[in-house]
Specification:
The protein has about 475 residues and is of the alpha/beta class. The chain has twelve helices and 22 strands.
Length: about 475
């Protein structure tokens, strides 16, 4: 929870721009802190998680233990730039705020809104005449139902698409219908289906000059993607898209096995990604970026296996009168025998499978550039259109791999990245690794080889719960080894 004071923004500068019609005194200031009111401690979480994610300052008040704080310190200085009231009514429609806030205190909140142009958001509210609606069901709805924004004009900075539905799953909610069209407009709807009719999910109220947004559903942001999705609507509406903090959505897509052949799922025939495939995706990424909000950036990250480049180059060089590749083969070894995905290899066990006759990396750039795919990637514009990370040199499975083999897998790919000029580029991740098949996370020898060679961030697999802890510890450099 954040309760620290942040610099205030002056409503006099934002009065015309943001149409805060209720504010008439140019000397009025309002702190940017958002006040989150809850009837008890467990109810507050969904009222502040999105604020926390944005970096917006907030203050949580559990009204079962504390009094309503002073909303303003003087007639021209407001303490809060927005108010969120979490869990307004229970399923039966009974008012369950009266034990913590009196009618006079609610009026105090409303008067503060009017005087300072501050907006109020009601989450998990039961449909009632207070909000210009009535309930469609007397007990609420407990089946999964789609929810979508129907009118985003009041929070366009959230960049939500009207009509794009997400499924509200495992959350009881309270479909409504508008009864007062003078004060009330729909901003979100529950979709028809699963035995339900289309109904109102959220409304905007303008009562005199006072404004509020009301949602007829709980906000379980701890586990509900739909709750997190629609929360952007009330955050941007309450702050008018002007807030201290930031909004970041992190999306990373990785394509593994670049340069090596991969058997296609349906045909079992080998396929090697071609230059045309990468050129198509450069155009695709440009189109995606052109349609995202200002300040956004998206790039595909490529996991490279350098041995695939050597194999392709050697094949081109095979019938040459003056061969450029030495040796005249890539790294080859017999098929591996591996344990189950969660097998924990005893440290120091296993058998080396890398060939003993190849001791050092000796292939020249002239050899490596016999591969047209490498030539394409070495052009700066093509290289920098993507992000890059190691996927080991040969793609050896590391469930049973020895320490010596894993060292070679890491170091030889590092050497390859050095030679092609990727290692010093901002688009390359020198400390990251995509382990082949997400293996090695239970192999102490592999983990030791990674860390000793400055690999401290490894891609995991959150569909395998036993990996989540060890992957996290690798990523924050907390692994301790017994050697």
């Amino acid at each position: 929870m954040s309760t620290s004071r942040f610099p205030v923004f002056r409503l006099c500068a934002a009065l015309i721009l943001l149409t805060w019609a209720s504010v008439v005194d140019a000397a009025v200031t309002v702190n940017s802190t958002i006040l989150v009111l809850a009837r008890e401690a467990n109810a507050s979480y969904s009222g502040y998680t999105l604020l926390q994610g944005y970096g917006i300052p907030f203050q949580v008040v559990d009204l079962s233990k504390a009094k309503l704080p002073a909303l303003n310190s003087s007639a021209d200085a407001g303490n809060y730039g927005g108010i969120v009231a979490v869990s307004g009514r229970d399923y039966s429609g009974k008012d369950d705020w009266n034990s913590v806030l009196t009618t006079a205190q609610w009026q105090q909140i409303y008067d503060y809104q009017t005087a300072f142009g501050v907006r109020l958001v009601r989450l998990n509210a039961w449909p009632s005449a207070d909000f210009g609606v009535s309930a469609v069901s007397s007990t609420g709805v407990k089946v999964d139902q789609g929810i979508s924004i129907t009118n985003s004009t009041g929070f366009s900075t959230a960049n939500l698409v009207d009509g794009a539905a997400v499924i509200l799953s495992n959350i009881s909610h309270y479909p409504a219908k508008i009864t007062n069209t003078t004060t009330t407009w729909e901003i979100a709807a529950f979709a028809a289906g699963n035995g339900q009719q289309k109904s109102t999910a959220a409304v905007y109220n303008k009562i005199g000059t006072r404004e509020q947004q009301v949602w007829f559903m709980p906000f379980a942001t701890a586990y509900s993607p739909a709750s997190a999705f629609v929360s952007h609507a009330w955050v941007h509406w309450m702050t008018r898209g002007l807030y201290l903090g930031f909004r970041r959505i992190y999306l990373n897509t990785q394509v593994d096995d670049n340069f090596v052949e991969t058997e296609l799922y349906e045909t079992n025939k080998p396929y090697r990604i071609k230059v045309a495939d990468f050129e198509t995706h450069v155009s695709w990424m440009k189109d995606i970026n052109s349609r995202m909000p200002p300040g956004s950036s998206y790039k595909i990250e490529i996991g490279h296996n350098g041995n695939g480049n050597i194999e392709a180059a050697v094949e081109k060089d095979y019938d040459s009168d003056e061969p450029l590749c030495d040796p005249q083969e890539g790294i080859e070894y017999p098929d591996q025998t591996d344990g189950p995905p969660e097998y924990k290899k005893p440290i120091g066990t296993g058998k080396d499978i890398w060939p003993r006759n190849i001791k050092t990396y000796t292939w020249s750039m002239e050899c490596m550039q016999l591969d047209p795919l490498l030539v394409w990637f070495m052009k700066p514009a093509n290289r920098d259109a993507y992000l890059h990370v190691s996927h080991t040199f040969t793609h050896e499975d590391e469930t049973n791999a020895t320490y010596a083999d894993v060292v070679k897998e890491i170091q030889w790919n590092q050497k390859w990245f050095d030679l092609i000029g990727f290692s010093k580029q901002a688009t390359f991740s020198p400390n990251g690794l995509i382990p082949p098949g997400i293996t090695g996370l239970h192999n102490g020898d592999a983990l030791r080889a990674w860390v000793e060679n400055k690999i401290v961030y490894a891609v995991g697999d959150n569909s395998r719960p036993v990996l989540m802890d060890v992957a996290q510890r690798v990523s924050v450099k907390l692994l301790l080894f017994p050697w």
